[in-house]
Amino acid sequence: MNETMNDGAAFANPHSDADRRRYYADGWWQDRVMWDFLVDGAMAHPERVMLTDGNNTLTYGSLREKGIRLAAGLAGLGVGRGDRVAVQMPNWAEFGVAALALSRLGAVLVPIMPIFRGDEVGYILEHSGAEVLIGPATFHKFGHLDMYLRLREAAPALREIVMVRPGATVVPEGVHDFEELFLAGDLDDLDAGLGATAAADDPALLVYTSGTTARPKGCVHSFNTMHGGAKAVVEKLRVTADDVVFNPSPVAHSTGLLIGLIVPLLAGAGSHFQPEWDPEEGLRRIETYGCTMSVTAATFLSTTMQAYEPERHDMSGMRLWGCAGAPIPGPVVQQARALFPETTLIAIYGRSENFASTMTGPDDPPERAVTSDGRATPGSQVRILDDADNDVPVGSEGDVAFKGPSLMLGYYRDPAAMAEDLTPDGFHLSGDLGYADEAGFVRITGRVKDIIIRGGLNISAREVEDLLAGHPDVLDVAVVSMPDPRLGEKACAFVVPRHGAEPTVESLGEYLRAHDVAVQKLPERVELVDSLPRTAPGKVRKNVLRDMIAEKLRAMGGINV
């Protein structure tokens, strides 16, 4: 390994000694890792179902057994404490097994969104220094294994590839079948041979932001920072062993991982993974698996409501649904109340850097889910700061800064970025603009960082712009968000075409797909302009462009903004 995750040069830990003592004293941090919570559940209620995905049903007891057997197999591949293992999988139960096996080994989970393709996956593999990659042979008719084999040449640390659900695919030489890694033998002997787990303060997760900069940043979390975020959710939303989480959110990213796996483990509850989003199927699964709660991007809720038919579907068991990633549109809340009167809607604002920053709760007035993004999560603090890191007056806009037990250890291999965003008293600047009222309820109003939030996925405008700048028909380009009633935002490209050219959504999309850009990041509208509005120093005035496209859509009757 060329550097360890504990290398001081790898990231800058923001938690002071005083913070650490307080987090331990108050129970936000403790001396156990994710694996220990599974063992507790397996000892207390081994037959209780912990994880389902439509094809697999795993109890706490069977999940512990699978975790030990897989951990032993991975140890045979040389995986040990501090090693980074990339896992790119849809919401399959195998993801949960792999995550828990890595926790048993003290290895670092590097989740990769299943929609990511060559450019994104290659960057994460190279940047993380992952030594092992676990992923599907194919998914959604895309050849993941072929991609992995191509990328291995550019990822010098990567030495092993493990293929999940190979189906009819022939496992090539040098690639391992996931199922064949589950070692047989006496379970206690295998477990004893694995040694002790890592410490709860050691790096355990390296999750990449979905694009607030040209390249995503790697957020380093310990299990304690994950525990701090999950415990806050458990307390605020009153999660108990009677709950079953409905998790269609990608478990390979922060929301799905925290809500779909760690929260139920802490509560002794169950979780259902839906691998591919289809609202009709989602409604069926909610009823079939007795789901009681969910946290998703708002688009999951809005499409569920569109598919809901009271004579065919039963949503009465869903006690709450949280929406994260973008403010919940008012009409969505009103419609949800009418369709699902038993379900409490929760607003959540969070980031990969610290999971949930603010949220509403079951005891808050229902309108708070429309007018705010909630208050600071239990055990944490949120401040609204100006450019000099001073608190702004109540109701004034500023940078939303967070401090608490769920804050990451730092940005991997970029300690300067962490230091730049950290105030002297340990608050992490989000780059998101917002204000707070006298009761402490926060409203996110905009972004300092130039991103587009499409259905909860952060899209880096600069990343797309940098690629489109190389298109032969493009002279100048700016990508901005445009409002969308279903997804919240979509990407619109303002293009200054080269003489005689007429680039289209189709031609630009084809060009980006050829550069391995995920489909969700492609601009869904193109506006041809003679020039881009700029400030005196030459910076594109994207606020003008956003206003232009919003006004155009309003005039067309396409959206009520």
In short:
The protein is α/β, with parallel strands linked by helices. It has 17 helices and 26 strands. Helix 11 links the parallel strand 12 and strand 13.
Explained architecture:
The chain has 561 residues and is an alpha/beta fold. Among the domains are: 34-198, Rossmann fold, CATH 3.40.50; 451-556, GMP Synthetase, Chain A, domain 3. The model has no long low-confidence stretch (mean pLDDT 92). It has a 5-stranded parallel sheet, sandwiched between helices. The protein contains 17 helices and 26 strands. α6 links the parallel β5 and β6.
Low-confidence stretches: none
What top-tier CATH class of the domain at 34-198 fits best?
Answer: Alpha Beta
Strand content: 15-25%
**Rg calc:** 23 Å
What number is the mean pLDDT? Answer: 92
Number of strands: 26
Based on the coordinates given, report the CATH architecture of the domain at 34-198. 3-Layer(aba) Sandwich
Query: How many strands, what sense, and barrel or not for the largest sheet?
Result: 5 strands, parallel
Write out the strand line-up for the largest beta sheet, numbering strands in chain order. Answer: 4-3-5-6-7
Distance between the termini: 52 Å
Class computed from helices, strands and strand pairing: alpha/beta
Q: How many H/I helices? A: 17
CATH fold field value of the domain at 34-198: Rossmann fold
- Estimate the global geometry from the Cα principal axes: globular
As a percent range, the share of helical residues equals 25-40%
